[in-house]
Amino acid sequence: MMQLPDIATHFEPDSQSPLKWVGMEKIALPMQVRCDQTSVNINTLMDVFVSLDTGAKGIHMSRLYLLANEALVGTELTFAQLDKVLKEIVASQQGLSQSAKLVLKFELPLNRPALKSSYSGYNAYPIELHCEHLAGKTHCKLISTITYSSTCPCSAALSRQLLSDTVEQQFAEQDNIDKAQLLAWLKGPQGSVATPHSQRSFAYIEADLAGGHLPDLAHWLALFEETLATPVQTAVKREDEQAFAALNAKNLMFCEDAARRIKATLESISEITDYQFKVEHQESLHAHNAVVYDRKS
């Protein structure tokens, strides 16, 4: 077979400086992830990189694709598997690289039951997994997004005050209000004097994981949905919508309140070595968002 030229080894590089990461992005990769003892199929976009040492013109890029494709397609996403692939990727470069990085991005489809009715539906949760093999050790970071509803405590208090004032005016000439009359008034359109503003809100959570540990993603997501208490819904009938409104009333939240809930949950997880997060309330009152950033350090 005719010997083909290898530019990476037969030509001098323009510069002798090393490069941090060289590789490819957005490689399609079907995989599986275990959630609640069940394997879930996911369509992953993978980024794969290696470092480039001083004096080398370029990496063996095709080896990254072929190795990751062979090792990961159709397999279950585990720390052991990722650690093995990262080590093999470094070895495939034959001394040109000392480090490797994988970034896996996908949406995890999970079935969520309605709050009251017998219906259910799927939510798609954006997930990113960043894994680096540095100095002989593999480190992983999990990035997840939780979407929830937040109702403003200040707006709720103002709405209650306005309702109270309106009831006072409506029944000003009566020393004793008839219960049936009051209930009828409240159930009518005039009973909606004011409503507190709510908004779709987002928690973007980045957690550095202890070596050898990848959490069950279904449990991970459910933990933060329970922390915030008002996750967005899928299938909704009238009884579900009413239950959701009641949940929001029980969990009035400024962005600071949501952030403190998330922080307390993150601090309680021993497998997390470091974290940072952003809370974003996309307000219906303002044209701007209310935001909190925080981190462990």
Automatic annotation (TrEMBL):
Q: Does the keyword Hydrolase apply?
A: yes
State the Gene Ontology terms under molecular function. GTP cyclohydrolase I activity
Record carries keyword Transport: no
Q: Which InterPro entries match?
A: GTP_cyclohydrolase_FolE2 (IPR022838), GTP_cyclohydrolase_FolE2/MptA (IPR003801)
Question: Can you supply a Gene Ontology BP term from the record?
Answer: tetrahydrofolate biosynthetic process
To which species is this protein native?
A: Pseudoalteromonas rubra
Pathway connected to this protein: Cofactor biosynthesis; 7,8-dihydroneopterin triphosphate biosynthesis; 7,8-dihydroneopterin triphosphate from GTP: step 1/1
Role noted for this protein = Converts GTP to 7,8-dihydroneopterin triphosphate.
HAMAP family per UniProt: GTP_cyclohydrol_B
Q: Which reaction does it catalyse?
A: GTP + H2O = 7,8-dihydroneopterin 3'-triphosphate + formate + H(+)
The record's EC number reads: 3.5.4.16
Task: Spell out the residues of the site May be catalytically important.
Answer: 152
Which family does the record claim for this protein?
Belongs to the GTP cyclohydrolase IV family.
Q: Which Pfam families match?
A: GCHY-1
Q: What is this protein called?
A: GTP cyclohydrolase FolE2
Q: Which UniProt keywords apply?
A: Hydrolase
